[in-house]
Specification:
six-stranded parallel sheet, 11 helices, 42% helix, globular
Length: 337
């Protein structure tokens, strides 16, 4: 083996956290390596920018559709990346369908995926999370023999596996953090009320505020920077010094709204986001947020889909994952007076 190849193998082994012997077996297409280990090695090859050797490319076990919302919110590409890596590790080829304003609808994307004879579909923050949408579309999909898993948005009118973060606990976590910093007037900026995650966040926020004898103040808007800006304006008018947001883009909009009024963040107003991405450590100020356990949830969704794709009955349950508060620079002690 040449020096260059040896160095490349060593880099891959370090990146994948395996021995060079294991990395070599994967790259040479040899048996005796666990699927998860093989996935890590191939992911390391991709991350380091190397081309996968022909012997390491396994024949596709089938196509799996992934239907997600727009890609401007970093949380959705983060989910897509982990799901695609996990599916590839099991030999499946992911097919991404993005619902964009003015573009294909969820039903149109599903029709296209079914025409391509996908083995299953994973939905992220889709119509299943909208309580005004007709859930029978999922029953029709199941009747066609297509297994599916739904992430973010439980709906008891749909018989399927669901993967969700504990949105109620997330909102309560943010309130408790701000209360410990001395904030008494805390508001919630969150998305449209028809969405299940919105309702759960609002319920967790309300209960947390009532437990400490405070009046909950909630503003419903869009899960966007502009939506956060508008909701924060109303909450600031109501005298809130702490703002909990339903997404990180909303939190950035809230920071902008406060600064446009000449208010310092976090000196005079504290802001908490929701989701978390690697960019939050570099915003101004670095954003305190409640982190969704993306990797755990994405892997759980893939595993829940593999069962019915393998012939087992499709589970009818919700897997709930605990979020994590990540404290950075957008929250501080409440201003005096």
């Amino acid at each position: 083996m040449t020096t260059a190849l040896t160095a490349r193998l060593a880099d891959i082994a370090v990146q994948a956290e395996v021995s060079e012997a294991t990395a070599s077996r994967v790259l040479n297409g040899r048996p005796g390596v666990a699927a998860t280990t093989r996935q890590r090695v191939l992911a390391a090859v991709d991350v380091l920018g190397y081309e996968r050797p022909a012997r390491a490319r396994q024949r596709s076990a089938g196509l799996v559709g992934l239907v997600i919302p727009e890609l401007t919110n970093p949380i959705f590409p983060a989910f897509a990346q982990v799901i695609e890596q996990s599916l590839s590790g099991y030999g499946f080829t992911p097919v991404l369908g993005t619902r964009m304003l003015g573009g294909a609808t969820e039903d149109e994307l599903v029709g296209q995926l079914v025409e391509r004879d996908v083995s299953g579909i994973i939905f992220l923050s889709g119509l299943h999370a909208d309580l005004t949408a007709d859930p029978s579309r999922y029953a029709r999909l199941a009747a066609r023999g297509v297994p599916f898993v739904l992430i973010n948005g439980y709906n008891d009118g749909i018989s399927a596996p669901f993967v969700s973060p504990d949105d109620e606990a997330a909102a309560a976590m943010a309130v408790e953090h701000l209360r410990q910093l001395g904030h008494e007037r805390i508001g919630l900026a969150v998305g449209p009320e028809r969405f299940v995650p919105t309702r759960r966040k609002a319920a967790g926020f309300t209960r947390a505020m009532e437990r400490c004898g405070a009046e909950p103040s909630i503003r419903h808007t869009l899960f966007t920077v502009e939506g956060g800006h508008a909701a924060a304006g109303a909450l600031l008018d109501a005298g809130c010094t702490g703002i909990v947001c339903g997404s990180d883009p909303m939190a950035l909009g809230a920071v902008r709204a406060a600064r446009q009024r000449g208010l310092a963040v976090p000196g005079e107003v504290s802001v908490v986001g929701y989701d978390d991405s690697e960019f939050n450590a570099f915003t101004d100020p670095p954003l305190t947020t409640v982190r969704q356990p993306v990797r755990a949830m994405a892997n759980a969704a893939v595993h829940a889909l593999l069962e019915p794709m393998g012939g087992s009955p499709m589970a009818d349950t919700e897997f709930v994952f605990q979020p994590e508060l990540v404290v950075r620079g957008s929250t501080a002690h409440a201003p005096r007076g």
